[in-house]
């Protein structure tokens, strides 16, 4: 990615293992871009994710699938910085890199599903994330908090970190470079990468849960056939 112009607008940041990328991720990115007025959403596949088991498919394949899935949508970009890094994929390091690239003033908006947001206190240097970016949180079926039922449903430490930061008006994301937490509603899609892996491993169809181009790639490269 190249450095942005001063008036480039708010940039959405959606990290994930993307093992594989699916319509839940893509709608999250697309709906966040529209609902929050973001100039673009950059998808960042993790190389070695620190918060979960080792991904089942290699980083190069997960990157290729993200590139296929986002092809043709100028509202989406792909950042391969974590895939080719030698260190673990810590979001705080990625945001420091993006902040250096895009300058101190450009609003950065870290987009998280509710499950990822709830797990924030387990992340490396998580309290520093608020100084680097805004955080936008989408509902995800099966995970609380759901959209606008805040505050009061978070863990005490997350609740404390979010005190005074939560705002339901996306306009706040454009008034400062970082520091606000904005819940937003997206079309609820109970799709997960683990569901897709399970279906493929079981010889069942995963069609219509993810782009055909990604499903074709999975078939061609024999991904997720074995545990
Ligand atoms: P897995 O099933 O392997 O745990 P996943 O489907 O949760 O994977 P991740 O790559 O771990 O996908 O998720 C990346 C980001 O996308 C996280 O912030 C997560 O909350 C969000 N996300 C994934 N699927 C959905 C969905 N269906 N709806 C809303 N957010 C989602």
UniProtKB/TrEMBL annotation:
Gene3D superfamilies: HUPs (3.40.50.620). It catalyses: nicotinate beta-D-ribonucleotide + ATP + H(+) = deamido-NAD(+) + diphosphate. Pathway: Cofactor biosynthesis; NAD(+) biosynthesis; deamido-NAD(+) from nicotinate D-ribonucleotide: step 1/1. Its EC number is 2.7.7.18. Keywords: ATP-binding, NAD, Nucleotide-binding, Nucleotidyltransferase, Pyridine nucleotide biosynthesis, Transferase. Residues 13-180 form the Cytidyltransferase-like domain. InterPro entries: Cyt_trans-like, NadD/NMNAT, Rossmann-like_a/b/a_fold. GO terms for biological process: NAD+ biosynthetic process. Belongs to the NadD family. Catalyzes the reversible adenylation of nicotinate mononucleotide (NaMN) to nicotinic acid adenine dinucleotide (NaAD). PANTHER family: NICOTINATE-NUCLEOTIDE ADENYLYLTRANSFERASE-RELATED (PTHR39321), PHOSPHOPANTETHEINE ADENYLYLTRANSFERASE (PTHR39321:SF3). This is Probable nicotinate-nucleotide adenylyltransferase. It comes from Aromatoleum tolulyticum.
């Amino acid at each position: 990615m190249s450095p942005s112009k001063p008036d480039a607008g708010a940039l959405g940041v959606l990290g994930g293992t993307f093992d594989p990328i699916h319509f839940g991720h893509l709608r999250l990115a697309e709906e966040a871009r529209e609902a929050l007025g973001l100039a673009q959403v950059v998808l960042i596949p993790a190389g070695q994710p620190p918060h979960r088991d080792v991904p089942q498919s290699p980083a190069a394949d997960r990157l290729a699938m993200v590139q296929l899935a986002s092809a043709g949508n100028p509202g989406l970009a792909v950042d391969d910085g974590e895939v080719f890094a030698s260190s673990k994929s810590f979001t705080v390091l990625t945001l420091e890199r993006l902040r250096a690239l895009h300058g101190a003033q450009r609003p950065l908006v870290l987009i998280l599903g509710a499950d990822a947001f709830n797990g924030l206190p387990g992340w490396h240097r998580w309290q520093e994330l608020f100084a680097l970016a805004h955080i936008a949180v989408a509902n995800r079926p099966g995970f609380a908090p759901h959209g606008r039922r805040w505050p009061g449903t978070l863990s005490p430490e997350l609740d404390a970190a979010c005190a005074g930061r939560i705002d339901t008006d996306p306009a706040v994301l454009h008034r400062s470079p970082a520091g606000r937490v904005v819940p937003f509603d997206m079309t609820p899609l109970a799709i997960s990468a683990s569901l897709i892996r399970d279906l493929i491993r079981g010889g069942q169809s995963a069609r219509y849960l993810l782009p055909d181009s990604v499903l074709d790639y999975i078939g061609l490269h024999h991904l997720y056939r074995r545990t």
